[in-house]
Amino acid sequence: MPITLAPQGRELMVRKVGADDKVKKHLMEMGIAEGSKVTLLQSSGGSVIIVVKEGRVCLDRSLAGKILVA
Questions:
Q1: C-alpha span between 5 and 22 (Å, rounded)
Q2: Taking the model in full, what pTM does it have?
Q3: What is the pLDDT of residues 36-54, one digit of tens each?
Q4: Going along the chain, which residue ranges are E strands?
């Protein structure tokens, strides 16, 4: 399921990032890659806030929709 539809406050595992190589590389540098664990904090309006490792990341809703989690 896309991270935009995931339950808030639960640790999730990234299964697939469906973006072009440049965006995938940028997300990987931030710690968002296949197999990494993230926690959805908030998904409202036009952005999504997730916790990656020890930091928070705010993503555009369209980009967040390309990150599939389980």
A1: 24
A2: 0.90
A3: 999 999 998 889 999 999 9
A4: 11-17, 37-44, 47-52, 55-60, 67-69
